[in-house]
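User: tokens in, sequence out, please.
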């Protein structure tokens, strides 16, 4: 299946870039047809612009009502023919309507081995701080499907990253994110080859 990926990002967009590069190299049979951001200052928007991919800033300041916000997102996804959503550091929750329409077709990446270190407050360096504080010997990254309970959807693929004795949250984050990029591309590649089933095939 040729993937038409809608990427949602809020900040740097390094995972988004990895996905774009994975499509360009042919590893993923697909293309990023649109980028949606809730933050007008996100570097992800700049990256989309550089790549000549249509991008939209859809903010909850403009679309205050969830219903309107959802509608605008769905309109945008439809316009760009999106058949799979990849959340890549998107800090806002997707509304029910979007999740319903794209049931089992919304992916997210998390910088830990879910179900550990997921849920409320577990984002960015908080995750790696918690992993080090718990003296874990290993952590990693997980790509999972998104349902209403965010980090609790089916796990599609994960990768293990060892925690070193002298790791700081920052050094650990740096090693994990490199693996995130590979993992997200690999997962989307397998989906595009039909080796991982999504949507109504699940
Ligand atoms: C990544 O660590 C990802 O796991 C998490 O948010 C971060 C986004 O980084 N969900 P980037 O914007 O892709 O660089």
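Assistant: Sequence out:
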């Amino acid at each position: 299946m040729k993937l038409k990926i809608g990427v949602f990002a809020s900040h740097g967009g390094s995972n988004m870039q990895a996905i774009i590069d994975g499509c360009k190299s042919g590893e993923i049979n697909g293309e990023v047809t649109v980028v949606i951001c809730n933050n007008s200052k996100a570097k992800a928007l700049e990256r989309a612009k550089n790549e000549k991919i249509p991008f939209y800033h859809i903010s909850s300041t403009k679309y205050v009502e969830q219903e309107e916000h959802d509608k605008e997102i769905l309109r945008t996804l439809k316009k760009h023919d999106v058949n799979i959503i990849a959340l890549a550091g998107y800090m806002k929750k997707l509304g029910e309507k979007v999740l319903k329409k794209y049931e089992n077709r919304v992916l997210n990446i998390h910088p830990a081995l879910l179900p550990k270190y997921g849920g409320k407050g577990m984002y960015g360096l908080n995750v790696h701080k918690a992993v080090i504080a718990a003296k874990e010997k290993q952590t990693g990254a997980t790509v999972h499907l998104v349902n209403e309970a965010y980090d609790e959807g089916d796990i599609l693929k994960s990768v293990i990253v060892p925690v070193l004795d002298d790791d700081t949250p920052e050094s650990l984050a740096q090693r994990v994110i490199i693996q995130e990029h590979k993992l997200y591309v690999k997962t989307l590649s397998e989906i595009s080859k039909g080796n991982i089933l999504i949507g109504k095939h699940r």
